[in-house]
Amino acid sequence: MLQFNPELMENFLHTDYQANKSSISIDSLGMREMQRRAYAKSESQYLLLKSPPASGKSRALMYIALEKLKRSQVKKVIVAVPERSIAKSFTSTRLSQTGFHTDWEVRLEYDLCSAGGGERKTAIFKRFMESDEKVLLCTHATLRFAFDQIGHDSFNDCLIAIDEFHHVSSAVESKLGELLRTIIYNTNAHILAMTGSYFRGDSIAVMSYQDEQLFEKVTYNYYEQLNGYEYLKSLGIGFHFYTGSYLDSLHEVIDSNRKTIIHIPSVNASESTKEKLLEVDAILECLGIYEFTDENGVIHVRRKDGKLLKIADLVNDDFRDRERIMGYLRSITSPDDIDMIIALGMAKEGFDWPFCDTTLTIGYRGSLTEIIQIIGRCTRDSKNKTHAQFTNLIAEPSATRQEVTESVNNILKAIAASLLMEEVMAPKFSFRSKENVNTKEIHIKGFREPNTERARNIIENDLIDLQARILQSPEIQASFPGIIPAETLNRVLIPKIIKEVYPQLEPNEIGAIGDCIIANTVFRHSSFSQQGNDKLILFANRLINVNEMDMDLIYSINPFQNAFEIMSKQLSPKVFKAVQQYIKALKVRITDDEAAIYWPKIQEFYQVRGRMPNPDSLDPIERRMAEAFIYIQQVEIQRQRNG
């Protein structure tokens, strides 16, 4: 029988958290907390680094790569990023100025993300591999093209660092995933995988369970990052629902006193007016009166109280205008340099504006990865903010308040877990015909599969927006009372709307997309796995029951323009800690007897070190003690509930 010390338990459960600067303070080598943790595992051949934006992943790579070169573990380092704009974090850096033994140097010739025209990048890549040069910087695409040309044997004795690793997929058709698997099983190359969101926007795992077991892991989550900042102390997440046009609701959600990135909806989304430039004009009009655009491309708008707002328009896709304003944004050094950024498709992954404290995203986002990336834009530590806010403005769903509340609450739980780098994902379904048997999929006789890349992309990326567009159609809504036969609804009305949204589609593509929408609608309350009344979320061969998480992140539900307004509690370090402990408890496999053995060791550990065992410790004994304590906490909580 376990014996508890209630006094000790109470102290452990009610810790007050403060901004202690641990995540930004540097040691004698110039390393921050996360970088030290990663550097401690620099001897590992395969290393997976999961860490939020602004935690220093790029510099952690530099320390690890230079250490491997110094020890002759590798002869060359190849850094691959998803797009050129992100590469600036990996350019030459004087690490010796802060105490490290070697500087990070990337010769301009082998920085393939900033090199101009002329010689093909794959040719330069090949020349690098045959030279004595040590470091090359390129995009994921260049790495794939070069790999196809020079073969896997050329990558022996190399460190391959892949930034934004969630772009990799375990699916057989993933070229980057196949490249990774080939290198792992056919060369002696080292791999460093880096990501701020170790999950994808679909239901496919980043790596197979077997491949993932080869990797040493360094996890530094948003909770640790937030707890170790100097200025930023909390994060809030909100969902606002509107009726009519979102443009009529902007005044309710835009606070022009906040440094804000506004992401307007895709032109294919149901929320879009299909006139993106007019939407930008409407946002500017909501803020005040336009005065002028300066030589840097910054738009100046006069607010009613007289304050002059500086706004960057990243929706305008004129090349010269875009380059001018992007150049200005790269050079800003003060919160006063810009007040607001309006974007479509940009200012997400890898975008750096440390003074941003609010992201307002308009339209449904089916990808949890995209949501986490957007949240990361406002969570950098900066003296101008103590709170960061992510708000999603979306069309009022056709559901009861209880259904909306339950759905959003589960989304908030999944987001909170994802910010902790826990491997969970919102359910997303894949439907295939009976001939393609897969135990993780739902099989429908006569189901038409998409047979073109265009149709597959729409199903993969735009399905939620398309479903929303269909549900908001007056003809579709008229069918709900049963006035219109189901066959007419499925065979005529839904294909008609798909054709209106995507006029370039062929009939077979429309049919496949329509089948997928119908199937998703029918099975929208299902999940990949069902155990009794529990709905389970599947990710990378692991199941985590989000519905069983016994915390409610919803802050309030109030009328909002005849719809709903749902706000989360502030995701403070204390809330993050509660979520983290609960999720870890779901994973712990320990008996009462083992926990009883560890309990006196845990007490002794606390008395000696003044802290509890860390579940992410490199010491396996400390990790097991931490798991035992998590288990003991949950047993005690359950005992108190049962009286």
Can you describe this structure?
There is one protein chain. The protein is α/β, with parallel strands linked by helices and 643 residues long. The chain has four domains: 6-15 and 576-641, no CATH class; 33-220, Rossmann fold, CATH 3.40.50; 244-395, Rossmann fold (3-Layer(aba) Sandwich); 431-522, no CATH class. The protein has 21 helices and 21 strands. The strands form four sheets. It has a ten-stranded mixed β-sheet with strand order 9-10-11-12-8-13-14-7-21-20, sandwiched between helices. Helix 2 packs parallel to helix 3, helix 14 packs parallel to helix 18 and helix 17 (486-501) packs across helix 18.
Main sheet: strand order? 9-10-11-12-8-13-14-7-21-20
The span between the termini is 17 Å
Report the structural category: alpha/beta
The global form is: globular
Q: Give the amount of beta strand, in percent.
A: 15-25%
Quaternary form? single chain
Query: What's the main sheet like?
Result: 10 strands, mixed
Question: Into how many domains do the coordinates divide?
Answer: 4
- CATH class designation of the largest domain: Alpha Beta
- The helical percent reads 25-40%
* DSSP summary, beta strand count: 21
Give the uncertain stretches in residue-range form.
1-18, 425-444, 522-544, 558-562
CA-based gyration radius = 26 Å
